Amino acid sequence: VSYCATCDGSFYKDKTVCVIGGSDSAAKEALFLSQNVKKVYIIYRGEEIRAEPINKKRVEKNQKIEIIYKTNITEIKGDNTVNSVIFDNGTEFEVDGVFIEVGSVPNSDIAKHIGIKTNDKDEIIINRKSETNLPGIFAAGDVADAPFKQAITGVAEGVVAAYSAFDYVKELNIEY
Fold it and tell me: Entry's InterPro entries (predicted)?
């Protein structure tokens, strides 16, 4: 079971996997996985995936990707590795791996409350120095509008934010 096709996709070369979700992120994960796996099934509870039009078209044209609509996974089976999943209708479906791409909502409520600008995904808008629209306020990680949502990139963004905050405080010429 994985939350990152970029990180773990290579472990599934020539295997059958499923991606849980119907967002643009799920479509992109499936497209990425299709480069190395035998088959990718997108399992989505809705009636139509909500991917960007270009990604939706790519998914639909990709012969290695099949979408199973109006379906939920209720169980993932296997001892040390995934062997199968159970659908909400009771059907057991054999797969070698499961990639979960159901999305998340950044916890940016307090930032919005104090006037920090966010985008349409509620991510805090930052510049290359991790600065927000409010002086002295910095953001990093999954709450920020950076393109990649991975632990390693979050750590790197945190380093940028820390150095930027240090430089900001240094510019204030506060004696301490």
Answer: FAD/NAD-bd_sf, FAD/NAD-binding_dom, Ferredoxin-NADP_redctase_2
Write out the catalytic residue numbers.
4, 7-8
Number of Cβ atoms within 10 Å of the Cβ of 139: 23
The chain-wide mean pLDDT, for the chain, equals 94
Strands 65-68 and 39-43: parallel
Q: Are strands 84-87 and 92-94 parallel, antiparallel or unpaired?
A: antiparallel
Q: What are the sequence ranges of the domains in the chain? A: 5-100, 109-171
Burial of 93 (0-12, 13-18, 19+ CB in 10 A): middle
**CATH 2.30.110.10 applies to domain 109-171:** no
Structure confidence by residue, pLDDT tens digits, 53-102? 999 999 999 999 999 999 999 999 999 999 999 999 999 999 999 999 98
> pTM for the whole thing?
0.69
Instruction: Please give the Cα distance from 53 to 88 (Å, whole number).
Output: 28
What is the β-pairing status of strands 73-77 and 84-87? antiparallel
For 5-100, CATH gives: 3.50.50.60
